[in-house]
Amino acid sequence: MRNLPVLLAVPDLGAVEYGLAKLSNLRVFRAASAATGEELYTCSGPSYTVGLLRDVNPGPAGSSPEHLTVVGTRLFFFAADGVHGFELWVSDGTAAGTLRIASLPASGSVAPEILSLTAVGSCRVYFATFGGPFGSELWRSDGTLAGTAVVVDLYPGVAGGSPYGLTAYRGRGRNLAVADRR
After folding, report:
1. pTM of this prediction?
2. Domain assignment of residue 26, given as a range
3. Which member of 21, 50, 60, 151 has the greatest number of CB atoms within 10 A?
């Protein structure tokens, strides 16, 4: 599911900025309130019931969720919980099922920046990072800590392979095309 620009008026939330994803019977979107800051909210049912998915970073600072990407029955996204910086999260559409998957390794005190998140097939996401001890490299995740790792360290060290333009395409199965800026 791709991110679609949207502007909704929701009482007590103000304007919904962007990032609408369809997860089963839910619509998940990023919105801000004075109490939670920017967090993910859901809208469901014929009466369009709106509720907070999970307050990832409790309090008014918000988690600034980004890159909402649906893979099968799960929503992957990046958010900051106020402790670990921007990290990869996964959700089944419930508060209890919204979990931080992994802490991406930092280089010193600088956490890597997430550049993209791309669904490939029905169970994995691929994403590119900039920074960290691996430099700019391609990662993948199946939604578990054990299944989240660098695909290959093309240029060992902080230089990295600089993957960009991640695109899922169909060939003999599900595939991923990646360009290298070098």
Report:
1. 0.81
2. 1-103
3. 21
